[in-house]
Please model this.
Amino acid sequence: SHRQARGAGAAGAPKTLWGSSEPRPPAAGPGQPSPQQRTETLGFYESDRGRKKKRSFSDLSLLRFISAELTRGYFLEHNEAKYTERRERVYTCMRIPKELEKLMFFGIFLCLDAFLYVFTLLPLRVFLAMFRFITLPCYGLRDRRLLQPAQVCDMLKGVILVICYFMMHYVDYSMMYHLIRGQSVIKLYIIYNMLEVADRLISSFGQDILDALYWTATEPKERKRAHIGVIPHFIMAVLYVFLHAILIMVQATTLNVAFNSHNKSLLTIMMSNNFVEIKGSVFKKFEKNNLFQMSNSDIKERFTNYVLLLIVCLRNMEQFSWNPDHFWVLFPDVCMVVASEIAVDIVKHAFITKFNDITADVYSEYRASLAFDLVSSRQKNAYTDYSDSVSRRMGFIPLPLAVLLIRVITSSIKVQGVLAYVCVVLFYCGLISLKVLNSIVLLGKSCQYVKEAKMEEKLFNPVPTATPGKPAGKQQGTFKSTQGISTDENGSTSVTNQPAHQKENMPSLLITSNSDQFLTTPDGEEKDISQESSELKHRSAKKDLLEIDRFTICGNRID
Model:
């Protein structure tokens, strides 16, 4: 009975819209929709949404998609800065071959001028120094020095050249050629790579040996002795030039074996080694200073290869009795080697400038810096010879290469009879004419480049005299000059500096080259200038770049 009563009560209770027995919601007030109207509105929206969905599915078709892809548009001007930058990069890569070859052309003639100096003007300067030394008692000792510092350095260069030339006669070129030819191709490829690395390492140490000898021999005698003596330095210099000449001879012999191989496989492998250089250089971080060092290294390497090719041609022409037909057999291989070297340098520099966001105008700065070295070395009170300046800047040391070339020429060409000696004299006069003409053209072009770079005022900035007896290690503000000479705030110079002979009370007018400051990081007030100028935006913010040696292997990032 209880269940029936409860069931009847439930059945008599009013039901809601959802069928529940809960009480109905309150009636809608005036201006508000009733629950029934809400339900009808909800159903209308749901039906309308369903119709739209069906219509959208019906609109999807392949033709409609293809039509949208074909007619879809976009506007590049919305990202104008990005596309302008990409276009400038393309233009920079297009300008790199021209600017790079202009730098290479100028640098190769600088190396040629320093190389011809050893054969032409150096013997004449040595003869004049010997004449002064012999006739000195006739004129009396007007100065405290028997010879001027430049004459002492010329005498040392001449003696080293003569001694190393006679020492090279004990090296048998033919035995070395057959010994290298008997090796396998892979072994020769490894040997050639090792020789390239050894050449860079021995060049960096060799120039320091020569500079130490020059300063030890010309250092004022009133200073306290802080060296081991001139003779030990001279012996080290002779050993260095001799060993470096033998190293270059092995390189030339390996290249000669590659030229004379029947299948040319060794020559192909050696040429492919240049393209391996791209892999080791392109994908690394480079700054303007690193790129400058690499450019100098490439100039020196290209000029050295030209001399090696000349030696190879001389040796081959001698073996074929100077038959001109054999030269045209060698000519395609020579052109192939030169072309591969040029192509590798262009590709390498193009991608280095692209990846490191360096403009092509930087090569004009490099050329101006080399020109500044040449002009500053021609000053009246210059502190170094021009050939030594090129050696320090590019790592090109002409003495070992000159010793080897003289040895090859004297063994390949036999001079017999009066007419032959007349031809030798005429050839020597032609070399002197070529050297003078080359020097005049280079000096004129260098002055033009220095003026275009607005660096001429740096040539006339005098440096204050150094304090006698004051050690350079206690000074502050030490920095590197162009030729790798450490100069403190009082102007004292390191062992590579060679002062001109002046009176005791006359102020020193030594010219300090500032081309490294032109290419390195400015400090102090120069930082503000570099931030304002868009041309100097690629300069590094690290001061230790001023301490970079000119023989630094540039494939690695300098931190």
